[in-house]
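FAQ
Q: What does a multi-component entry look like?
A: The components come first, one per line:
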Amino acid sequence: MSATSTVASDPAADAPDRRREQPPRRRRRPRLPYALLVPAVAVILVAVGYPVYWQVVTSLQEFGLAQQFGAPPTFVGLDNYARLFMDPSLWAVVVRSLLFCLVNAGLTVGIGVALALLMNAVGRVPRLVLQVALLLAWAMPMVAAVTVFKWLFDWRSGVVNWLLVAIGLDQYQGYSWLAQPMTFFLVASLVVVWMSVPFVALSVFAALTQVSDEVLEAAAIDGAGPWQRFWGIILPMVRPVISIVLLLQIIWDLRVFAQIRILQDAGAPIDQTNLLGNYIYELGLGRQDFAGASAVSIFVLLLTVLLSWPYVRSLLKEDEA
Amino acid sequence: MKRNRLVVASVASTITLAMALTACSSGSDAPADDESTSADGTPEPADITLWLAGPDTPDALRDYLTSTFEEENPGSTLTIEQQEWPDLVTSLTTALPDAENTPDVTEIGNTQSPTFTTVGAFRDLTPLYEELGGDALLPSFVEVGMAEGKNYSLPYYFGSRYMFYRKDIWTAAGLEAPTTLSEFSDAVKELHTDSQSGFAIGGQDWRNGISWVFANDGELAVEEDGKWTSTLSDANTIKGLEQWQDVFEGASNVPASAMDVAYWDFLNDGTDGEAPEAATIMAPNWARWSIGDLTTNDDGEEVRDGMVDDSKYDIFGLPGVDGGLAPVFAGGSNIGISAQSQHPELAENLLRIIFSEEYQTMLGENGLGPANSDYVSSLGDDKFAQTMIDTAAVSQLTPAAPGWAAVEGASLYEQLFQAIAEGGDVTEIAAEYDEKITPMLNNG
Amino acid sequence: MTTAPAPVVPGSVAATAPRPTGPRRRRIRPARVVLSAVAVVVAVVWVFPVYWMVNSSLLPQARLQSREPNFFPTNGSLHNYADVLDGTGFFAALRMSLVVTLSTVALVLVFALLAALAISRFRFRGRKSFVIAMLFIQMLPAEGMFIAQYRMLSDAHLLDRAIGVTILYTAAVVPFTVWMLRGFVAGIPAELEEAGMVDGLSRTQAFLRITFPLLAPGLVAAGVYAFLQAWNEFTIALVALPSDASQTLPLWLRSFLNASVSKGVDWGEVMAASTLIALPVIVFFLLVQGRMTGGLVSGAVKG
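Then the predicted structure of the entire assembly, as tokens:
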């Protein structure tokens, strides 16, 4: 909307800035904003406070199934962290998760924006058809979605292999997509992107609808081509939405867990396809090493905070500007 | 090991908006023995809970348990909850230590049993052992429920696995059901073509694959002076693994990474009459109902007929190295009383019903191998029942090591067998996995 | 400047209808035809897995895994639906899911709206930390928290009760919805409200009559998000609702994914069950869609 105010002189759009320049009226009741935060903060503290506290404590102890069943845990300091950092498999998982996350977040946002532009560019009927398709995909339960993709890529009865063979690529007869890490992640990415694009596309489309037609038409009359209009007007206006959506997508794609697990059930090289969530799950509930799992969780939290910090800062700066 | 007297130090007492993180023990977790009993020694009436895993126990058996229990323990009730297999370890890990919410009696996978037994999750059943069947109970299952010479969980039911094959295909190739393991290998390799597995097995499918280890007298792990060691590098184990590798490479079209494939579909003619994808498979006894010619059931649904045509479909037990039957991995589960149960006497009464002749017979009639070998005849006397009983009689279980559930939880055997199926050097792979597995075996 | 437009307005899909269509738009140009064709093709590709779910739900197990794919349910029937509905679980699970999901949506909307108002309408100490905390809290891996969550609920006697899961879900969804709603709130100039107060409305009245309606798209977007999260969540539910009697729909679905001694996994039933779980979501989408017509995004929000 900051772009709007430079192009069109809409008084309403400028208003919030003026308000901020004269905040004293708000200062009279400093308690109100805190009161408004109480419910949100309280529910988060209740639900997340103890688990985080438990994880921090547990990560400093020796804590396995025996401790879960009542044996007193022993304090071991940072041993769990040291043990994990020495484990090359953790670093492999970290790198793999980051790559998976960045590639998928990028693809999802890229495709989402493209579909939003497409919806904006076509007439009512095709737009509605596309929107309904996206909503249906969005409504599909995750387990069903992953299962269906698993079938589509099944080595034996999958539609994908069947089609490839039908067009003459005989080497795909019985080709096992999930057996190699690269093709496994190809399928996993397809599922993840397929599931997340509707959210991005519909969000960005909603933002696009707020770009005023008059402005675009004015620009067109002034001789701006479609490309110039996109870069000069449309993109700056939807940029805030895109950056938020991208950030969220990064957070969510770093947390991908169940999709991978369900795909692995069909038979995959497990240690080469685990992402961070799977690694933590395997360590905790799989190997009953709850201390190790807690240590990795804390580590992942710190790592994501660290990695996203520059981006978050720029986002906040934009916000304050 | 020392069994811990239930000091569940749970933190966070109540959910309050202030979220006071004060440490406090969650009160007196009443030791199981001091249960309040009325003057004449019968337990106070109460509601007890039984966890069953998966839908395996049919509804009729559940109804029988509830009504019989409530009849024999006036005033008490029995609630049966179904837990799903993939989530069972998670639910047991959280609920069993929790006196307030623990199931009183729970089913547990036989390979999961040692892990929970050694951490003190179950109540000592040694005093009841004789009464519930004693030596008639399946020994291998009894063993995985033991710790320090005491019984903590007992067998609930057993399953077995055997070979299903296309008799028409075998006969056409001039082959008959094999009598030794090497005959089996030769036959299925002969039957192998690009479009037909002689023997369809996925590389990761270790629950089938370990039969070859057992057949060669190999051990997966052994206990010495209370310490477990993974023995994949043992000469006999290597021999079994190499034989399995040979069969996989020579007879199976299934990917090395595949597991838990619906093998039974491979034996069927396609829905449009295509040739079957495999001549032989190995599967649990219930696979029968997914094999056969297409027919229509009472509801008008298309189903397989359950191998009616016995010139086309047949079964045999996996043969041993020198004839006879090879020991296969037995399916099935154990059952035990939670150490935290607040009503252990009622729970014991429930076990008495479960191990009664009547209930054991009902298990058999429903195709579940009864825990008490005196009642196996209830399984019937057709070839399916007979092969199941025969193969189960020589079956083996995974090592009763405290850390076995962790080995499974980390999917190490899936990875081990995949590496072998991909054609790697068995000796090297075995050494690599011994090194990974041994430290995990002893952690309870 | 803060006025990031609404992050998501899935509900406002129809709201775009009344936009002015100038003569330029009516001309049919070849580029437009190509784009329309692309849109339809993309739609078909996107909807294909959904179609495959429904198609499979109509096929008998014997046909599901055959090597020639069955593209149409020619031999199909509603048997799978009859079978999954026959077991007792569905309606109890549906009720539980509705209770948990709707309470979560309600709590999330109230809590997040209040917090969004606080951070976009007021400057106060700790504001920035709160905004950052809301973001980072989402980065906690959930896979390590089950045991702690179980103990907490058990100690509070909230296991197997809708309220326990609802609290956990609300906490999981609130951080994101706060971020979502602050954009919407910031997009509505406070001056509108102030003008209303000049006209004699109280502060609360001004909020309810002027700001609140303008926030509707944002609330719908946040509501949709909360609904989907709570509706499909599985792992927390597994830990917090151990008893059969209190299971939610994803737990109910889980019971069909189980091979057993008596049979393998019946994938037709799994797909029928999945379709049944997706239906209420689609109904929910349709409902909020309907509410959204009438161009709520017009006026002050629109640049």
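Q: Is there any commentary attached?
A: Sometimes. For this entry: The beta strands of chain A are 61-62, 74-75.
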